Amino acid sequence: MVAEKFDVIVVGAGLAGTSAAYTLAKAGAKVVLLERGDFPGSKNVMGGILYRQPMEKVIPGWWREAPVERPISEQRVWILTEDSMVTLGYKSQRFNEEPYNAFTVLRARFDRWFADQAVAAGAVLVTETTVEDVLRENGRVVGVRTSRPEGDLYGHIVIAADGVNSLLAQKVGLHGEWPPDRVAIAVKEIIQLSRERLEERFGLENGEGTAIELFGEATRGMMGYGFIYTNRDTLSVGVGVLLSDLIARKIHPNELLEGFKRHPMVRRLLEGGEAKEYMAHLIPEGGWPTVPPVYTDGFLVAGDAAMMVNGLFREGSNFAAISGKLAAQTALEALERGDFSSRTLSSYVERLRETFIVRDLEGYSRVSRYAHEHPELFTVYPRLLAEACHELMTVDSIPKRLKLLDILRHARQRRPLLAVAKDLVGALRALP
Amino acid sequence: MTERAPVAEQIPDFSDYRGVWVNVQQRDGVAAPVSWQLLGQAVPMARELEVEVGAIVVGYRVRHLAEQAIHYGADVVYLVDDPVLERYRTQPYAEAVARLIQRYKPEILLFGSTNDGRDLAGAVATIVKTGLAADATQLSIDRETRLLNASRPDFGGKLMSTILCKRHRPQMATCRPGVFPTPAPDPTRTGRIVEEPLGLSEDDIPTKVVAFLPEERRVDLASARIIVSGGRGVGGPQGFEVLRELAEALGGVVGASRVAVNAGWISYEHQVGQTGQTVRPRLYIACGISGQIQHQVGMQDSDIIVAINRDPNAPIFRLATYGLVGDLFEIVPALTRRVRELRQRLSQQRDVGPTPRSAASTAVGGNGTG
Amino acid sequence: MHTVVCIKQVPDTSEVRIDPKTNTMIRGGVPSIINPDDRHAIEAAVTLKEQFGGRVTILSMGPPQAIAALKEAISLGADEAVLCSDRGFAAADTLATSYVLWAAILKLSEEEPVDLVLCGKQAIDGDTGQVPPGIATRLGWPQLTYVRRIQEIDFARRYIRVERIADGGIEVLESRLPAVVTVGREINEPRYASLPGMLRAARYQPRIWDRNFLDLDPEQIGLRGSPTIVSKVWAPPRRQRPPVILIPDADRDPDAAAARLLDYLLKDGVLEWAPAPVPAAE
Question: In this predicted structure, what is the pLDDT of residue B363?
Fold first, then answer.
């Protein structure tokens, strides 16, 4: 039997892959979407927050029909020491009104819906099928080989959206294995709380939601952060750190999560909740310099497979969705021209540059590097801040001026003034 | 079957359906023990309903089974004896049973849940258009309604479902071998044998039995008194050799959990549990078995349960009579050794002759920590 | 040659979780699969097709979500699939189920005569194999259950010979077609779906037949047509077992622990070849 030929083969039905497949199908291209999991979303893990506007660029009005959890109307930042926290936050009614800004989602539900949209638009979805390799002719990628019997598939273009552990881009030679300081590991649990309790505890009304990011002791002073996001009647609770740091500290990811959940400031939020699911995943880290070449003859890479993640601003999902769409548009152009070589496909990078993606990733790389070079951000500074606040809040008979001097003195003991100045200058330079 | 019945309901008049019957399965003139086990259940139910206990015997040259059925509690046996029935085939057996039902109208009819039993019961229930409850583990009578309550563990295992057949007769149920105890026969019992013709000739039956290959010594878990059973902790087929030695020394058989069977370490006929067999031995030794619900359902009625497992938190310890937290590959051989020593001592004693009481106690191991 | 395979979509027991509070199986989110024995039936049918030509039609009664099971069967090599789905079929017991499937098989026979019906020998969610005998009885066809091997089949001569797992041994039976045959794990190794099969399944839409299309008697379907009913669900009074007697140091001194265990067992009298120790004479 002759293997079937498609216009485009998309590998991976996550946010990047499904965006690509959706865009292609809507434009009438013959596209197949291959997913190794039992269903789209079964292998995907995210905090997770989806941003309304970037997603609308791919699928307008998506938030009206997609299974989202809660619109986020409040952002809190908590800086933890062992027994205290310094907090900052912003909440706005306007974020709880149409058209909304961001939503918490559960990937298993969302991805399934999203893939259904791609199928309704005409994409062919095949699940439980792993792509093992690309097929090549004269150095060009002309298809993929799957693990199934008679498992070869041909296509003018292959879009690899197969995630952070992407095999395909490696097979094509675009990059090698990621070193552990180029990936973060995130572990997460879905914790069930009754809806009433959840809303009461987090002060929520009218279906709104809260996102909390936690630093400092949350990650035992390692680079990264913890998070607590409110879903309808569950919490997404997790923590992510640079993999190389975790390895160096010899801490088991599960231990990290358990320690986080046990923290006195976190524990009370989770009280009475029941852990329903546990998951862990790698997250690309490092920004633009980490992004490998994203195209070659007959081949494009999108999403986590291309390491497009801005960790600090929780942006992996929108980069994935948009890069998927841009890869699709690049493919459509190539189909029109009838030329699938690097020459045509190189326009993918231009398209990426036109969006905020590349600029943000470039900026993020500076932030990422700065954070990695300044571990005191996650250890010393939180403590400094906490002590200062503690001192200020303690009402005793010491005059305020003396208190302030005391605070400064303590601070200088922990971190000399020169060092602080350097830190500040570096931070300013690293700003996106 | 997940709906609950509405409370008030018209139950038709079934006053002409009377009697609690059991189908006596047989092969080559030997009855399956489950038939006697079911008669043991039929007798008290019939007493409650104040009706007769009936038995169906279908086969060729099987009159002696009719007599046995009476010894096991049947008041009347309906016998269909014909050369066409020499080997089991669905069509003639199902028609024979259906004719008996239509003629003599039992209110309850029980079948053993074996391959042949299920093959037959499913066909009979469809011919007669009545309800069949499968794999019941508890049978009882509701006096007020005269209804059979056939209960079985729910799909999940921890709950029981009770199945009723309100508007059809007879109420049929199948039960697995080993669920109910085998009663003791009473050879002095008397009863009636009613013989009925088959009314079918060989030409009427398209299916022919070309050959029958009896199986060599099958593992009879259902009636075993001692079972040494292995699970994930056994680790492989070689591990089961260790259990086999203990089973042999004790005079028992080897069982297994689904995990071990699925891994290919031992064949399916050893499987105990929801998708294997239900057992009720005197002694069940669970080695390296964690004790998930699906396994417990198959052995929880054992008299004495011994659990040997490395993990002190394994659920099996909640069910067990005795527990040993340790390495089964050390404990089981040690136990085998001691059992063999004991057996040897006992057989030597027997050779020597009866011994005074006190000596017997010491020899048998009154302070047996040796 | 037209073979019909009856399948059922069931919850995946290996993934079952028990809710500790209510002691019920957590069904929500439990993946559904094709009943394992039915996979063997599909494999047997597709293998026959590869040998003798002809068509394989998959038939099932269930809610709309069973479509996924039918598509999976297509990916395994079946040609067509029909789902009998109707609100009125809900709560059907095995008699009501065999009624619907019988009517569907008759309907399929109108399109192309059916030579063989293959079913899994039993469903893991409690059926215990009653539906196939029900179908065979209604059709008036021979039923051959627990078949572990089809020795010979001749569609032209209308002949079939099988090895059946009977009580106490293996029977070799011969019979005529059309017939209803049930199979299980013993008969074959189900294949992995090929990629072309997966693609075909992704694009395939099964036909859906409701009670009107099949012209069914409302008294014989669903709850109305079910002589048996689940009247209640209850928790059995737990057999009162005293807390476990833990024999100490089974890890440090297994031999001593074994000896102590043997002691207990003897006193309990479970070892029939050993008399229970008689209390020492005073």
Answer: 38
Q: Name the band, by pLDDT with cuts 50, 70 and 90, for residue B345.
A: confident
The residue ranges of every structural domain in chain B are 20-204, 226-352
Range scoring the smallest mean pLDDT among A270-279, A402-411, B216-225 = B216-225
The structure tokens listed for A317 are 């999902």
Residue C133 has its nearest CB partner, among B119, B161, B166, at B119
Measured between beta carbons, which residues in chain B are less than 8 angstroms from residue C274? 342-343, 346, 364
Helices B328-352 & B357-364, crossing angle to 10 degrees? 160
- Chain position carrying tokens 């030509």: C53
- Structural domain boundaries of chain C? 2-220, 242-282
Q: Which residue has the tokens 């902790």?
A: B233
Looking at CA atoms only, how far is residue C202 from chain A in angstroms?
6
Q: Which two tokens stand for residue A167?
A: 């095999």
pTM score: 0.83
Q: What is the pLDDT of residue C13?
A: 64
The list of chain C residues with pLDDT below 50 reads 22-24, 281-282
Which class is domain C2-220?
Answer: alpha beta
Q: Do domains B20-204 and B226-352 have the same CATH topology?
A: yes
CATH architecture assigned to A5-68+105-175+292-354: 3-Layer(bba) Sandwich (3.50)
Q: Does C156 touch chain B (CB under 8 A)?
A: no
Prior bond to A48 cis, omega within 30? yes
**Which pair of structure tokens corresponds to residue A385?**
């801040």
Candidate from B3, B283, B358 with C-beta closest to C270:
B283
Q: Is CATH 3.40.50.1220 the right assignment for the domain spanning B226-352?
A: yes
Q: Using an 8 Å CB-CB cutoff, list chain B residues near C256.
A: 369
The full set of domain ranges for chain A reads 5-68+105-175+292-354, 372-430
The predicted-structure confidence for A252-308, as pLDDT tens digits, reads as follows 998 999 999 999 999 999 999 998 888 888 888 877 777 888 999 999 999 998 888
Whether domain B20-204 has CATH 3.40.50.620: the reply is yes
Residues with Cβ within 8 Å of residue A241, at least 6 apart in sequence? A184, A185, A219, A222, A223, A224, A256
Q: Mention every residue, 6+ apart, whose C-beta is less than 8 A from residue A117.
A: A18, A22, A59
Token representation of residue C147: 């078949």
The complex's ipTM works out to: 0.86
Does the distance separating the beta carbons of C263 and B168 come in below 8 Å? no
Helix (H) or strand (E) holding C147: strand C143-154
Q: Which is nearest to A103 in space by CA: A14, A225, A236? A: A236
Chain C: closest CA distance from residue A125 (Å)? 6
